[in-house]
Amino acid sequence: MDLFDRTEQSRTGAGEKAILVHLDLPDAMGREDLDEFHHLVTSSGVEPVVELTGKRDRPDPALFIGTGKSEELAQLVKDHEADVVLFNHALSPAQERNLERAVKCRVLDRTGLILDIFAQRARTHEGVLQVELAQLRHLSTRLVRGWTHLERQKGGIGLRGPGETQLETDRRLLRDRIRAIESKLDKVRKQRAQGRRARQRSETPLISLVGYTNAGKSTLFNAITTGDVYVADQLFATLDPTLRKVKVPGVGPAILADTVGFIRHLPHRLVQAFRATLEETVNATLLLHVTDCSAEERDSNVEAVNEVLEEIGGDKLPVLHVYNKVDNLGEAPRIDRDEHGQPWRVWISAQTGAGFDLLFEAIAERLAAGWVDCWVRLPAHAGRLRARLHEAGEVLDEQAAVDGSMLLRINVNRVHFERLLREQGLREDELVVPAPDDGADPVAGDDSPSYNSERSPKAG
After folding, report:
1. Which of 83, 104, 115, 427 has its CA 20 to 30 A from that of 455?
2. Residue 437 known to bind ligand
């Protein structure tokens, strides 16, 4: 059996019968949500047939659930002809091997189950590589489980005697494959970095959707961008990141990124494997933290997302909380503001579109600090600057003068605006003019040209 085919032995399949095991542990890190575990299991496609629960002060070092419970579990496997046993906890390699030996059945822990779901969801080349990397790192600690031939010598011509063992060969193959995948992912990171530098040069703000899995991020993403991201009532329905250009009223063009959902006690190796994807989160101008406001565990889900953000270095970024599914609570959309009057939470429904105007208003306010919204008068020879302003941001109004000069109301990124002025050898105080009164010319004096608004083009 080839080493890299063995991961298929750990996969769950549609129609397989599974026995679920859950222990109530006092330790916070060992305590997992049972409802979430059921959702994970159904998302993987297996059929749960029976559930084994118990309570312990601490896990058994050898069998996790203890000798008595393991015997009960073995009987359940036999009675229900189960194909796999799924644990709602992280098991050590030794515990997994001992349990498989005791129950005569495949055993997967919480990490293995999440890896299996990720493997099903991966669609892009990058996603497949990231999942395989996480799986191989997980497999590297479990090489000896159930594979009795790994204890034999490799043998053969020139390899007789104490030659290389099969286990050592497999370890070397794993290391080589992991290095190859890391090299490919490094190229992906460089490609993403190149695209990120292009966005930074144009100062286009990056808005990343983050949040607990199944909070409605992809539904919101599709509604805002008219995208086609896969949406389902499943955990980790979206795995691969998707970026789309959007227009934020009052701000202009921005990039919206939909990322993988987080989960409580997300395995560390998954965070490592998906670091290239999560870089879109770390480099965001603004995070939209989407939360299912109708969920009973709403507050703990927010804490779980904050823990992952801290682990990947995104805890210092500005955050706007988006409380989704407000229609499930029967409440009206609204904006909650902090003590400084800044919006920090918006209540919306991504499914019905209720509150989208409030969401865009809040986003515009949070991004407004780095933007210039003013009237400028451009001389006739500054046609290139006018064209660049149209490219860089949003021209809200435009009026032409008889001498060829232009009066524009602009809304552009301040850093980009200042750089454009330097390139043209102009100063901001030379161009900025007061806002025009209705029917009046704000810049024309007795000797100045008049503006004809009827002949002036309007910005789209």
Report:
1. 427
2. no
Question: Is 350 labeled as ligand-binding?
Answer: yes
247 annotated to a ligand binding site: no
Is 447 or 380 the better-scoring residue by pLDDT? 380
Token reading at 92: 């050590």
Residue ranges of domains in the chain: 1-121, 204-368, 371-433
Query: Per-residue pLDDT tens for 359-400?
Result: 999 998 888 766 777 888 888 888 888 888 877 666 888 888
At the topology level, CATH places domain 204-368 in: Rossmann fold (3.40.50)
Provide the b/e sequence for 143-155 (b: ≥16 CB within 10 Å): bebebeebeeeee
86 belongs to an annotated ligand binding site: no
- Write the pLDDT tens digit of every residue in 407-435: 888 877 676 777 788 888 888 888 888 88
Is 238 annotated among the ligand-binding residues? yes
Q: Is 291 annotated as a binding residue?
A: no
- Tell whether 13 is in a known binding site: no
- Cβ–Cβ under 8 Å, residues 280 and 241: yes
204-368 matches 371-433 in fold: no
Return the closest-CA partner of residue 205 out of 312, 320, 308: 320
Q: Is 212 annotated as a binding residue?
A: yes
Residue 325 is labelled as binding a ligand = yes
The response to whether 326 counts as a known ligand-binding position is: yes
